[in-house]
Design brief:
100 residues, alpha+beta, Translation Initiation Factor IF3, four-stranded mixed beta sheet, 3 helices, 4 strands, 20% strand
Length: 100
Amino acid sequence: MSLSNAQKRYLRGLTHGINPVVMVGDKGLTENVLQEIDQALDRHELIKVRLRTDRDTRRAFSAEIERRFGAEPVHSIGQVACFYRRNPRKPVIELPRGGQ
């Protein structure tokens, strides 16, 4: 699933009101951290992840989260990245139509 610019803009607006639910520290993307990210995406669909590392490693971690969980990147600023993955069983967020 690829998000349109309008959908990303809508989701970016929603991220202002949420706090990071997972923090990736010195140990990186451990199995426990990956499990927490997966569960958070199932529950909330839209999550913030704090990536406490250098820029190149943050990019690699973000790419791994996108690849592993099929999450769409919404945006990233500094050490915080936001991801969206629709829950097929119980959708939480109603996205605007793609072309709007």
